[in-house]
Amino acid sequence: xxxxxxxxxxxxxxxxxxxxxxxHALGLDHTMWAxxxxxxxxxxxxxxxxxxxxxxxxxxxxxxxxxxxxxxxxRLIDAWGVGPV
Length: 85
Known about the structure:
By secondary structure, this protein is α+β, with helices and mostly antiparallel strands. The chain is built from two helices and three strands, in the order ββαβα.
């Protein structure tokens, strides 16, 4: 997977099923999905990422918006090179 500048990404599990991308709730980080990813291990490739300004991801350069978060998720899926998710 290509790196996304400023966005922390964790590969959680491998598998041959439908790929899964986990995005966390506001105020948390990607680790909220650890148990879910463990249950999917060996069946579905999955990754989780930290939203901007959370966990290991950089903060915002400008105002936060839902569109910024959607664009980040789309870039992440494109960089992963799998899909649909």
